[in-house]
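Morning run. Coffee first, then this:
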Amino acid sequence: MLSLALPKGSLEQGTLELFREADLEIMRTEREYNPRIADPRIGKVKILRPQEIPTYVQEGYFDLGISGLDWVLESGADVVEVADLPYSKAGMGKVRLVVAVHGSSPWQSARDIPDNARVSTEYPRLTTQFFERLGKRVHIVYSYGATEAKVPELVDVAVDLTETGATLIRNGLKIIDVVLESTTKLIANRASWSDPEKRREIEEIRTLLLGVIDARGRVMLKLNVPAERLDDVVSALPAMKRPTISQLYDDGYYAVETIVPKSEVNVLIPRLKALGAEDIVELKVYKVVH
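And here it is:
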């Protein structure tokens, strides 16, 4: 039975939705930080700040956790990366740790920043490593939040996490460099990963979560096609693999089922109809397990 640490804050809502769609619904109790999941593989669930989760997973307080790659690297935690889960607050999947300065600054890249510049960040480890790779000595000022608000009055540079860059722009900053790109990670304690029973449970949880991730942006199409138009219709389908085709009873028609990208449906459905498809039905896909 697994113990699981889930992230509070910007990743929280997306995590709750992912687990719900994976049929691992996180049920809140009167103890806000100690929900439960009605699944025999999961014994304990805790909601914590994502900054803390990699270290707690490394130290064995939890078998499994979800946190951003940024916090895994910032903490230096020695954990197993079980899966990449590309979801985030705005649904784009990736966030960036960026170097930002005031919009009026002449600096166009991090290489332009002079030695002894004051840099505010919640990521001192990653920021120090980044500037060391550039051969620069800067003064790191730890930020407890609202990092973008400190430039230029209190510090010269902000190193901050952003998904769209909108908050930085609203505060009069411009991005001049990228420290790293980060996605959400499913991580495991090394001893738990080495335990055959726990590893089996971890891999089963991973299968469910990745099935949901893979299904997002896809739909199922079901349609009927006259026998003489079947080849034309099938050739137009951008199927994951080959479509499922079955002959309908005694009427010269075939039923076709396939999974296609949601982004293509608005063009695809009229095309299929023009090629002879009938009774076209679009269905939501909840999981795709390879």
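The mean pLDDT is 92. Good start to the day.
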